[in-house]
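Morning!

This is the sequence you dropped in the shared folder:
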Amino acid sequence: MKQTTGSGTLRKVIGASSLGTLIEWYDFYIFGMLAKTISTEFFPEGNSTAALLSTLAIFAAGFIVRPFGAIFFGRLGDLLGRKSTFLLTLVLMGGSTFLIGLVPGYHSIGMAAPLIVLLLRLLQGLALGGEYGGAATYVAEHAPPGKRGFYTSWIQTTATLGLFLALGVIMLVKMNISDEKFNAEWGGWRYPFWFSIILVIVSVYIRLKMQESPLFAQLKSEGKIAKNPLKESFRKKGNFKMVLLALFGATMGQGVVWYTGQFYAQSFLETKVALSFEQSRLILLWAIVLATPFFIFFGWLSDKIGRKWVMLAGMLLAIVTYRPIFNQLLEDADVQQWSAENSTTTVKQQTKLLAHSTDSLILTTTLYKLSNGAQYAKEQTDTLQSASGKILEGKPVIKNKVLPHTGKYVLLVFLLIFYVTMVYGPIAAFLVELFPVHIRYTSMSLPYHIGNGVFGGLVPFIGVLLQTTFTTDPLIGLWYPIGIAALCFVIGLVYLNNKVTDH
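The structure's back. Tokens below.
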């Protein structure tokens, strides 16, 4: 079954599909980017840690329901059509995001605030579960023979570009208003959520002008669409075997590589390397800009040499080099080593009294400048006899470092995202080609969202959990993605077929 979509139409198909998917990823990620601020607005005061964990739990809920969205919207896509289904997911995602920006804070409506946000977050996860499979299938079914990897790779850029857009919009707002105005109940943190509605309106307008996938339209005209896509996808032994192979031989490893390169790395730079929010985001933004074209390159390469070897090579590189790369990030950020190798100048020092329950602490902040041009600030709480008779131990905290090798940091994070482009660039074409047209939307969506939303989405949580449990090894959190990627590599190496098909 071949398609003859013209080049002009194909460009419009890719543009419209990619724009909508980018907006959905933007909507999905701004919540996580603003988790700390959101936790203070939608939960009661008094326990900031519990509030942040609750907010992160709501963020994680969006990942957990993605497979359910894949099943629900995948079924609709195989019954009603690709276009109408992913148009619906776009409206659902954009509307939910906009409404999160309108929910009053805890001080106004109490516990109703986090409950409403949770409901909207679940709708976001359901929508994303249906969007990706529809967009990837739609583009693949327009692509000419032998170029499916290249054309679907444009869809693959949207997750990273959505993250880039979310970071960019948030930083743009933060740089133009004070922290107080940004963090207020109706402050600047809401602007990125409101901005979403403009993007959605534009994308819906463009998508309404699109035509149905030619392959699905032909199936529908011939009366060959699936009567029960779920039953055919998961109860037929042959197809269910392909679903399991897609999950354990490809998307599971791809998911952990994706989230390690673009989320765990970001957390690592802040918690272990002790960079500021702006520094870590700037490094990530530059790395994303430099790496994004490689999604297209590896999608194109997979048309030439097959999907299998490109994806497995990315997993293998990640397995072998993750610990050396993250260890290098730590070593280059070692302030004690900087001080030993360079003369240190004290730029300024500030001391203030802090209230700490019934205790009082003296906080001393000192800004240092080294002869190599690096700067860093060190906070020291002095040991005091508290009002309760308890001895308070002073502990220095390094923060706001200006790295002596910022370019090297960009390069190291670029390598992490480069591996993402290898495993993610060909994955859409790979999944499309595993399944027949009449159940394709349903069949490919579920393994993708389990691999990414569950195995991949757990990378930051499990990484932090391992770090807090085994404190002697700062790189302990990497064993989870390394282990999952290694298992997926072995399964993929043995069982995956490297043949590119055009059915």
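Headline: The chain has three domains: 1-225, 231-331+403-503, 336-402.

More detail when I'm at my desk.
O.
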